[in-house]
Every structure is written in C-alpha cells, then in structure tokens.
Amino acid sequence: MAAFVGAVKLFISLVLWLNTLSSIQGARDFYEFRYPFIKRASSFSSTSSFSSSSNDEVTYDYIIVGGGTAGCPLAATLSQNFSVLLLERGGVPFSNANVSFLRNFHIALADTSPTSASQPFVSTDGVINARARVLGGGTCINAGFYTRANSDFIRRVGWDARLVNESYPWVEKQIVHQPKLAPWQDAFKDSLLDVGVSPYNGFTYDHIYGTKVGGTIFDRFGRRHTAAELLASAKPKMLTVLVYATVQKVLFDKSAGKRPKAMGVMFKDENGNQHQAFLTNNRRSEVILSCGAIGTPQLLMLSGIGPKAELQRLNISMVLHNEFVGKGMADNPMNSVFVPMTRSVEQSLIQTVGITKMGVYIEASSGFGQSQDSIHCHHGLLSAEIGQLSTVPPKQRTRQAIEEFIKRKRDLPREAFKGGFILEKIAMPLSTGHLNLINTNIENNPSVTFNYFGHPRDLRRCVNGIRMAAKVIQSDRFTNFTKCDKPTVEKLLNMSVQANINLIPKHTNDTKSLEQFCKDTVITIWHYHGGCHVGKVVDPNHKVLGTRRLRIVDGSTFSESPGTNPQGTVLMMGRYTGVKILRRRLGKAAGV
C-alpha cells in the first residue's frame, strides 16, 4: 500500500513538473504546434491561398481587430466556414509566466513595460486602471472569476436565449473550472450567510441572489486558461492570427451618395512597417472591431467615425459624424476594506460572491504571491522611485498629490501582504462619463472619464455596501478565522485608507464619513464598458450605424456590465455572434 501511495505522489509530482515546464520554455514549441496559424505581423504577405479575387492579392471574408475576450471565440467560430484574419496588437500569453499563473496575478498588472500584457491608464477621476495588450485580452490579466449574466440582461439586450444557452457551454467546456475553495473564501462564504446574504446557492455559473461560488479560468494547479485557447477550435487553414499587429485605422470606400463601406484595415507590425489587409468583394464580408471599451471607440474615431468637432480638432478626415462615439462610458466602482492578519494566508482571487438585493456585490481576495519564474517587471506608474508622472492626468499632476501617492505606497502596511480584502462593487452604476482622443497615435491611451459616484444613488449603494462589508468582517465566523479581535468600523476604514492606492487626495474625515470614504478610496475591478451603445453607435445586430460591412463585438456596446463579472458573457458573445453570422449566411449548412 505504501508503495502504491508513493507511486501516486511521484506521478502527481511529475504532472506538476511537466505542467510548469510546458508553461515556460517548452510553451513556445507547444503553442506553435497547436496554433500554427499564429504568426508575427512582420510575416504578413499580401498574397495567400485565401485570395478569392482574379489576381494574387489576398482578401479575407472577415477581418477581426482585437484578439481578446470576444475576438478569439468569434474568430474560431467564423473560421469554420470562412477565411478570417485576426489582428492583435500584443503578443502571445502561452510562454508568459506572469500571465499563466495565479500567483503572479499582481505582477502581471504591475508590469507596465511597453511590451507587457497589461497597459496601464489613469482615468481623469484619478483611478489607476489597466487594459489588456495580449492575445486573449482581459482573460489574461483579470482575477479569473467566471459567471453568466442573468436572464433579465439577456432579455434587455435582445439576444436569442436559446443560442445564448448553447454558446455559454461551448466556452465553459474548454477553459472554465470549478475552484478549490481557499480557506479565506470559505470563511467569507460562511460570514456572508451569517449577515443575511442568503440563500447559499453552492457552485453555479448562474447569477442568483444570495451567496454562491462561481467558476474560474484557473485550473487546480493555478494555471490560467484564456480566450486564446479557444482558437484551438478554429479551422487552421481558414484562420490567420497576427500578433504585434497594431491596427491604426479602418479603410473605407466613400463613393459619393453611398454609405461608407469598410474595405479593410491599415496596421503596423512589430518593426514599425505599414501593411494593408482587405476584405473580399462580397457584400457580407466585414471588418469587426473587438478592441474593448477603450480601444474600439478610440479606433472608430481615428478611422473618421465620431463627433465632428472631436475629429476636426485633430485634423482627422471625417468619414461619418456620430456624436455618441465615446459617450456613456461607465465603470463599476469598487471599494475595499482591508482585513489584517498576523499570519500569512493562502493567496486567493475572487471565488465566492454575495449577490445582494441592494445593488451591490460583495467579494473577497487574500494573500500575495510570486513564482520564481515570473518575468521581471518594471513597476512604472506604481514605482515610488520612477513615478512616470507624465501618465498622471493633469488634474492630479500636482507635486503634493504625487508626493502623497509615493508616501502611501512606501508606507503600505506589511500586513497587506498577509491579510486580505473584502470588496464591495456597485452593480449597474448610473454615473457615466466619456472618452476623448488626446492625439492620433493609437498606441497612446485616450482620455477617459468615468465620473464615479456622479449620481447620488451610486453613492448611497456604496455606503450600504461598506456597511455590509464591515458586518462580514466583524462576524464571529470571520474573526474566528482571522484570530484577531473584532475591529471597529473606524479602525477598519483607517487601515483601508492607508492601503488604498489611487491618485485621489484623501480627506481627514475619510473614516468618519462613509460617503467620503467611498469617494476617496474608489478603485476599479476593470469592468468598464460603453462608448459604442446599441441604438446610438450600432444597431441591434451590432453593425455600425450609417456604414456598410462594419460591426462591433465587445463590451463597448454594453450599457451595463453583465453579472458579477462580464468576462463569461463577453466570451459567450464572441461565440454567439459568430454562430449567428454563420447561420444567417449559410442556414443549416453552417453546421454550428
């Protein structure tokens, strides 16, 4: 028996070793074998077997801009029947240890070097944020939590419920897992139930009131599975994926008297060389933008579609005036309450969530980690020594604000790396802002304003959420786990202000006024959306109004963030839209 147990342990150790090995040096050979259609942008040639024209110039049935959360499943689906070119400005995630492992989650976000998977930006509100710059998009840098949207959301956006329920499982079978509940998350679950966030719904993908354990894109070894892996479902001969391909604008035919027709795109490769890629002459061929809520409205405007005054200000040739491009930007404001511990706690990201009926979600995270093989990162904006003050919005770029920010980072309590946080997030915020171009360089972030707590109802919800979070921390279940005395609310908030990092000036009454605490310590969990709303920028099928052969498939079309985390629905959206397009073009012959 002992020999058998020893053999099992040896086998498990071997599996773990092979898993780690494949994620580092061997990962490159692995992905090149599994995804032979992924190439660097500099390899692009204007001639290919895809060409359907009489000459040798290559054309594509679909050109998808953005190989992210929606773009990858969309490309994989459309390639079943049509030629697809997928253009991604970042690199591949497979050999990047910062992306691949849960324990390096914080490191991937802190890496602000020019080629990192995460591109930081700071909204004019003073909140530090991030956008993905890697094949797989936000699924490569997020906290991994997976949930479906509720049925009301599906009904409001007008989607076919039957096809939605076919599309979610297509994603889930490939990259979603049931988490092994971490001790912090287990104690948090019991505490939520103690304070009345009930019933307990167990493990489920569904969005249901009460306390639940959701899915995760991290497997039991802590390895991340991203949207890029959905490309394994593609038809290899029908798909070309170019990484380090930065699309600069959509190319249009602006023949007099006709709506502008998308013809292709112009993009730059990793060496700075310019290329153009074109659609076939078929009227159903399309350029599809899947660049996310920041990238898509930015690219639309740089391509000449947007508010006339905005385009004229930067001397962009106008293709189509649309005052709503970049409007209605929203982010779900999040505030955190820090919970110290005298001992180290296992690292965990979001696993358990409390879905309340007062318009807030209560979540939790704990610990800190970094693997030995993680890629050395440059902290950039978050570095107290370097600062990168040029990335800070002008409104916050005062010497006093920067010095206070640096001091707060240096003075972070050591317990922050031993304890954890209870997080409170507003569902469906009413406050909205806008996105504007700063210049015509697509590689630079636009100016983004979310206007957190601009609507008084959002602020009232935050106050109620903070009170709920404090009750969770003070519950007997949680204090028994932390082995700490039951803290007062004022003590909790005071520690949380110290541990909070944003560029918003703090006030002396932060711990006295919950309203001020919400305003001063607001952060993000990267669920921003909007900028290309249905009915204003796109029609119900997500085709750009006033144009031909141009569509948008990403969260920029959302007026609310679906569920407690949008990634599941955005992944599903890519598959759903792809299937819908195929069925409309081919009927039963589509085979999907």
Automatic annotation (TrEMBL):
Span of domain Glucose-methanol-choline oxidoreductase N-terminal: 292-306
Name of the featured protein: Glucose-methanol-choline oxidoreductase N-terminal domain-containing protein
Alphabetized InterPro entries for the sequence: FAD/NAD-bd_sf, GMC_Oxidoreductase-Related, GMC_OxRdtase, GMC_OxRdtase_N, GMC_OxRtase_C
Signal peptide (UniProt feature, chain positions): 1-26
Annotated GO MF terms: flavin adenine dinucleotide binding; oxidoreductase activity, acting on CH-OH group of donors
Record PANTHER family: OSJNBA0019K04.7 PROTEIN, PROTEIN HOTHEAD
Organism: Gossypium schwendimanii (Cotton)
Domain of life (superkingdom): Eukaryota
Entry keyword annotation includes Flavoprotein: yes
Keywords on record: Disulfide bond, FAD, Flavoprotein, Signal
Entries under Pfam families matching the protein: GMC_oxred_C, GMC_oxred_N
Family of the protein in this entry: Belongs to the GMC oxidoreductase family.
Gene3D superfamilies assigned: 3.30.410.40, FAD/NAD(P)-binding domain (3.50.50.60)
Residues involved in FAD binding: 88-89, 134, 247, 526-527, 555, 566-567
Cofactor requirement: FAD
Disulfide pattern: 462-518
